[in-house]
Specification:
Largest sheet: 9 strands, mixed
Structural class: alpha/beta
Number of strands: 11
Shape: globular
Helix content: 25-40%
């Protein structure tokens, strides 16, 4: 299985990393993104050849295991998110970890197991366009996100679309959390340092691929999240040793430059 693995002994980015602009022309080559979602339609024209692994949750009592699947996306949501990532990083690969069912909903315990699976596989970037509001999962998710951080996994999570905190997006110390903006240029993302949800990215009226070969125009934080993930795939291609802490610092520096250029 091809992955870009994390390390706990990494060099910091060079001082000119943001300014040199090399990442702008990167395509995500050599980078695998773990998509924890409803699956991915690997036959969609925009995703064909980009899916390197597909597993789905099998629940037996309290035990959750992940086995290979070949029936794609059960709801369409994962295909939409994966398509946004590969548009920004067309040579990045997607590892689909299916935890949601046909209704686009799922069990928080299965979601937790899917995230743990991705961390154990040490996928460098993990996209979470989902979350849970159930308070009993606060502590186990917090612990798991700390493990992901220590393993060098860069986790990107969407904020809740409703005015209620969801986990793990509020764990801003160990992941990158994203909320939608009306900005249309994915390179003009924002960073609100010190807020619970720090990053903003395009998430309004986004035309995305959909399961079955079609397209939909969608709005939501779920679709802002993969915009940041796609840009991270470019950054990781040019700097494979990037740690979660460094990733946040670099995105903050880029966002500050974006703001300065518009003033």
């Amino acid at each position: 299985m091809s992955k870009t693995r994390g390390s706990t002994h990494n060099k910091a980015p060079t001082p000119g990393f943001v300014a040199d602009g090399d990442w702008l022309s990167a395509t995500g080559r050599g980078v695998t993104v773990a998509m924890i979602d409803s699956g991915v339609d690997a036959s969609h024209p925009e995703l064909a050849g980009r899916i390197i692994d597909e597993v789905g949750a099998k629940v037996e009592g309290t035990k959750v295991t992940f086995l290979p699947v070949d029936d794609g996306d059960l709801a369409g949501h994962g295909t939409a998110c994966a398509g946004i990532i590969t548009r920004l990083a067309p040579e990045a690969k997607i590892a689909s970890i299916r935890v949601l069912g046909a209704s686009g909903s799922g069990d928080a315990q299965v979601f937790l197991a899917g995230l743990e699976y991705a961390v154990k596989q040490r996928y460098k970037i993990i996209n979470l366009s989902l979350g849970t509001t159930k308070p009993q999962f606060f502590a186990p998710l917090h612990d798991l996100l700390d493990r992901a951080y220590q393993a060098g996994c860069i986790v990107v999570a969407a904020a809740n679309n409703l005015p209620q905190p969801s986990f793990p997006s509020i764990f801003s110390s160990s992941l990158l959390s994203v909320v939608k903006s009306e900005e249309t240029d994915p390179l003009k993302f924002g960073f609100h340092y010190g807020e619970v949800i720090e990053l903003t990215a395009p998430g309004v009226s986004i035309r995305t691929p959909w399961a079955g070969g079609g397209y939909r125009t969608l709005t939501g934080n779920s679709f802002a999240c993969p915009h940041i993930t796609g840009l991270l795939a470019r950054l990781v291609e040019t700097h494979p040793e990037l740690t979660p802490f460094q990733a946040k610092a670099v995105l903050y520096a880029i966002a500050r430059r974006n703001t300065a250029e518009t003033q």
